[in-house]
Amino acid sequence: MPLVIAALPKSEPFILLGESFAGPLAIMAAAIHPANLRGIILCATFAARPIPWIAWAVPVLANSLVFRLFPPAQQVKAILGGYSNPQLRELFAQIHAQVRPGVVAFRVRQVFRIDVRERLRACDVPMLCIAAAKDRVVPARNVRVIRRIKPEMTVVTIAGPHGIPQTRPTEAAAAIVNFAASLEEKAIPVST
What we know:
Blueprint: H1 2-7, E1 14-19, H2 22-30, E2 37-43, H3 58-61, H4 64-69, H5 72-80, H6 86-98, H7 101-111, H8 117-122, E3 127-132, H9 141-149, E4 154-158, H10 164-167, H11 169-187
Parallel strand pairs: 1-2, 2-3, 3-4
């Protein structure tokens, strides 16, 4: 978390975007009310265990051997569904080649320990949630959990899998631009 806080802009307004595993990090950073934070975008993410009913099995299943044996092509399919293309699959293969299976297993175990719902309550800036309609990694119940805490949050659902910014970049970018524009409108005083 200190690395995230240190990387935040110090003198310019900014919006935090947390996708997938980075969503809880964005929530934790926003909860400390950094200067110049104008909004938060949560994309295909969660505030607590994304799939609670399998949490009991995670300590057993999330280990180096499983991720060494689970073919990268199947990992990509889980993230991208049927929305990938050869270039995207190659990019994910390069990323997977650089990350040791033990690191992936550790991150998966951490996902099932995270609970930032109280910190989410402390966030006091406008929020956008970009949800993937066909997300198998972070199911739709996660948006409902976040929305119960932040009912005023804007939700945009895009047809596609977990890796929505990678598979539907135009739609994801449009949601981000529209959210940023709405923050600009709120910041501009209107004279009468």
